[in-house]
């Protein structure tokens, strides 16, 4: 944990007290050197997107341990190719010859022998990798990748691969063998890895749009996108099959599954079929138009991209040095005693107890900027500092977000105004203003101008109507889009899927200790023979850390995409998934993830660029040394780690927004100091989501916390959207009621279960609401299949049930 963390100030102050005077200055100078990178770091030039660059996404598929397999794939392809074409290279053939060879390889996938099938799979993988041996540059490799992948898709390779993957997943012999093994390595998952590599490269490459694509390729892309999201493969979307692999792995029945590749393919399949953040924004705009709601006040993606980062929090060592400078200046300038008294009066909250000083330092070290006292400079009343005009231009005019108001907020405001001025209330009436003073009229007008009705509110109101009037409400028109099909596919096992994803996230988090790893996520990175030299050990260490980072990136993206798409499709689908994430301890897990030196995580250099695909197959590899591995690349930050952090913060925001009980969980788990440390990262989007999480809990953190963190409060005011009438900075909130987690979650759960049973559970429908056939002819005309023993004893039945019983015809006719 870094020094700026919770309790950091206390430790540093105790260390200062124990140091001799001479070495104390050296200690502080060294601390200052260590912390300069944090408190004076430049803005990170990071642009948030659905994915990293295409080349980066390709390279992350392979672990460095898989390096030798590139040449093995090439060998398998060339052996197969030379039996049919002996005098030409692949790049010299025409389209018809390319297609003929692709068909031959596809036929080879149907052989019974596993070894032959694996050879053909490797040959196809080499094609998908761009037949790199015949290319001289990375751009050429990527060109042939696109060409070969569209060719293979056109001849039907993807469907064959899905069938093979299904067969490998159900391979009980491989599963039982892996369960018995004490240590699982790369060799145990060879067949699965080859298949998943091909499928991932196909999905990622076809998803990548290029202006130079032919109309045929564009049509192929749309067809493939539709097929991938439809229940064509094994009567379920491919994402559901991959979710099944995740749960099977976490249950311990298939420890050899290459989980990183499964998760990456799952993420890219969801991204391709459902759409990324730009598509989400477009869907939201069109849905609001359909529901005749006012347009969105702004494009959130554009607003966030135009934001600038705030100054990061000062570290504890910075504050110590400020105190030392202040003390030195006081001695040097021989300030009069009355001035010293005036200085002490400047800080009304300063006490004589040194322990309280230490606590104050702990609180202050995380504020957005270190606020200097007047006496920190040589004069008591310094002249005003003239800022150059260039600085002033950079500040945005006005606040970045248009304020919003909910209908509920207007109701609360009117109720409190009526009870105050008139002495009665009118329930849900937001129009009657009789008897209220004119300023209240103007306030209501302003509130209504900024009223925002969300799609979720309309969906909840419609669902309530369906529940109240099941007969007269009519049939609901459910659009069978990709999101709806995916939800229907994962609905039966959604709780297990969420638990499995969070288990893997916990195992991949850098804060996890070895003893808490209940599952082994390194099955597809560890070699058969463990390293014997220091250099090999260093390389494997980098590979393992990179492997974990990629898993965190994939899981965070999967969860965020699903939450956002489900919320747009129907809010109760989102609430169902969110509630199961909360029940599976997602909130404390994300807080645990951030309870680390987040700057170190974001600037981590766990990559060896010369071993990344496609660089490693085109260029001559230089000799690796321990120094080059330690140096890493020259990037200012690690894109995937910053992307993961922002995704996890967004997930935390989604889970806690408008949920009082979950907000209180943030308070109970002491998230404020953890989140404030994350503000050290000078990236506007990350800071925005941290500030949002701090804003929702500010009213519960107490007056002293707010007093000590005024810079953080100012940053919240500047960057986070305002909700009119929201007393977020004070304790006067109508929702600040006792924490009743169970009641709130149970009410929500009841609504979700009613929605799921009404829309998806055909067996549980109330028989009283089912249609009844009242026509005598159609009822009597129905053919009824009677059992054999009844037909044999039909005469006895007639005698006992009909002839022997008296019939009162008068009663029957009446």
Automatic annotation (TrEMBL):
Residues in the signal sequence: none
UniProt KW keywords: Cytoplasm, Phosphoprotein
Offer one example of a GO biological process linked to this entry: cytoskeleton organization
Q: Where is the Far11/STRP N-terminal domain?
A: 41-339
Q: Where is the composition biased (Acidic residues)?
A: 354-368
Q: Where is this region: Disordered?
A: 22-41, 309-385
Q: Which InterPro entries match?
A: Far11/STRP, Far11/STRP_C, Far11/STRP_N
Record's subcellular location: Cytoplasm
Q: Please list the residue ranges annotated as the Far11/STRP C-terminal domain.
A: 437-794
Q: Would the keyword Ribonucleoprotein turn up in this protein's UniProt record?
A: no
Q: Where is the composition biased (Basic and acidic residues)?
A: 23-36, 332-353
Query: Where is it found, in Gene Ontology cellular component terms?
Result: cytosol
Q: Which family does it belong to?
A: Belongs to the STRIP family.
* Function comment: Plays a role in the regulation of cell morphology and cytoskeletal organization. Required in the cortical actin filament dynamics and cell shape. Part of the striatin-interacting phosphatase and kinase (STRIPAK) complexes. STRIPAK complexes have critical roles in protein (de)phosphorylation and are regulators of multiple signaling pathways including Hippo, MAPK, nuclear receptor and cytoskeleton remodeling. Different types of STRIPAK complexes are involved in a variety of biological processes such as cell growth, differentiation, apoptosis, metabolism and immune regulation.
* Name of the protein in question: Striatin-interacting protein 1 homolog
């Amino acid at each position: 944990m870094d020094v700026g963390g919770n309790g950091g100030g206390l430790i540093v102050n105790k260390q200062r007290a124990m140091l001799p005077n001479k070495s104390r200055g050296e200690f502080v100078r060294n601390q200052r050197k260590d912390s300069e990178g944090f408190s004076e770091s430049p803005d990170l030039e990071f642009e948030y997107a659905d994915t990293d660059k295409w080349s980066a996404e390709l390279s992350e598929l392979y672990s460095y341990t898989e390096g030798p397999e590139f040449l093995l794939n090439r060998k398998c392809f060339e052996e197969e190719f030379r039996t049919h074409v002996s005098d030409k290279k692949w790049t010299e053939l025409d389209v018809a010859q390319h297609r003929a060879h692709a068909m031959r390889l596809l036929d080879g996938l149907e052989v019974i022998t596993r070894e032959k099938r694996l050879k053909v799979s490797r040959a196809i993988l080499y094609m998908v990798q761009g037949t790199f041996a015949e290319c001289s540059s990375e751009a050429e490799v990527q060109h042939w990748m696109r060409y070969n992948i569209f060719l293979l898709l056109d001849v039907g390779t993807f469907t064959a691969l899905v069938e093979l993957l299904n067969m490998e997943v159900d391979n009980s012999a491989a599963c039982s063998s892996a369960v018995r093994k004490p240590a699982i390595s790369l060799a145990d998952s060879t067949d699965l890895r080859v298949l998943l590599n091909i499928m991932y490269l196909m999905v990622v490459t076809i998803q990548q749009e290029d202006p130079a694509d032919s109309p045929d390729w564009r049509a192929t892309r749309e067809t493939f996108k539709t097929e991938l999201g439809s229940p064509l493969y094994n009567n379920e979307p491919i994402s559901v099959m991959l979710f099944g692999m995740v749960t099977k792995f976490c249950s311990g029945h298939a420890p050899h599954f290459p989980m990183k590749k499964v998760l990456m393919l799952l993420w890219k399949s969801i991204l391709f079929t459902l759409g990324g953040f730009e598509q989400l924004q477009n869907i939201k705009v069109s849905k609001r138009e359909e529901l005749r709601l006012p347009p969105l006040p702004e494009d959130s993606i554009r607003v966030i991209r135009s934001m600038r980062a705030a100054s990061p929090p000062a570290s504890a060592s910075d504050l110590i040095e400020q105190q030392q400078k202040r003390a030195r200046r006081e001695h040097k300038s021989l300030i009069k005693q009355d001035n010293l008294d005036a200085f002490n009066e400047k800080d009304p909250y300063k006490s004589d107890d040194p322990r309280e000083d230490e606590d104050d330092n702990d609180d202050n070290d995380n504020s957005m900027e270190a606020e200097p006292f007047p006496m920190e400079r040589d004069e008591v009343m310094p002249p005003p500092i003239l800022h150059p005009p260039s600085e002033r231009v950079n500040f945005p005019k006005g606040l970045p977000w248009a304020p919003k108001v909910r209908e509920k907020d207007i109701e609360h405001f009117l109720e409190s105004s009526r009870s105050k001025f008139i002495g009665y209330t009118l329930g849900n009436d937001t129009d009657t203003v009789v008897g209220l003073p004119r300023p209240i009229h103007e306030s209501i007008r302003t509130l209504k101008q900024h009223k925002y009705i969300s799609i979720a509110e309309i969906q909840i109101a419609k669902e309530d109507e369906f529940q109240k009037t099941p007969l007269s409400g009519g049939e609901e028109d459910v659009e069978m889009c990709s999101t709806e099909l995916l939800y229907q596919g994962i609905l039966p096992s959604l709780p297990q899927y969420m638990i499995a994803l969070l288990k893997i996230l916990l195992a991949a988090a850098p804060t996890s200790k070895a003893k808490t790893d209940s599952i082994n996520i390194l099955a597809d990175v560890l070699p058969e023979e463990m390293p014997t030299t220091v250099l090999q050990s260093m390389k494997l260490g980098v590979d393992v850390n990179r492997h974990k980072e990629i898993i965190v990136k994939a899981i965070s993206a999967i969860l965020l995409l699903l939450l956002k798409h489900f919320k747009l499709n129907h809010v109760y689908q989102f609430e169902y998934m969110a509630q199961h994430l909360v029940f599976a301890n997602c909130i404390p897990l994300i807080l645990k993830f951030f309870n680390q030196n987040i700057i170190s995580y974001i600037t981590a250099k766990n990559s060896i660029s010369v071993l990344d695909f496609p660089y490693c197959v085109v260029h001559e590899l230089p000799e690796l040394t321990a120094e080059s591995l330690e140096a890493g690349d020259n990037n200012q930050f690690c894109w995937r780690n910053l992307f993961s952090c922002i995704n996890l913060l967004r997930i935390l925001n989604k889970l806690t927004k408008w949920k009082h009980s979950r907000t209180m969980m943030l308070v109970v788990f002491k998230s404020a100091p953890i989140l404030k440390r994350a503000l050290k990262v000078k990236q506007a989007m990350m800071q925005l989501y941290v500030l949002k999480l701090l804003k929702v809990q500010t009213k519960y953190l107490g007056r002293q916390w707010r007093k000590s963190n005024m810079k953080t409060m100012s940053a919240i005011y500047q960057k986070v959207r305002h909700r009119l009438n929201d007393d977020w900075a004070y304790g006067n909130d109508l929702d600040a009621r006792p924490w009743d987690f169970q009641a709130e979650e149970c009410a929500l759960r009841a609504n979700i279960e009613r929605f799921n049973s009404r829309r998806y559970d055909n067996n549980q429908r109330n028989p009283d609401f089912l249609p009844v056939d009242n026509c005598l002819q159609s009822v009597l005309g129905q053919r009824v299949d009677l059992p054999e023993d009844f037909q044999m004893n039909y005469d006895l039945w007639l005698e006992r049930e009909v002839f022997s019983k008296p019939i009162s015809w008068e009663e029957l006719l009446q």
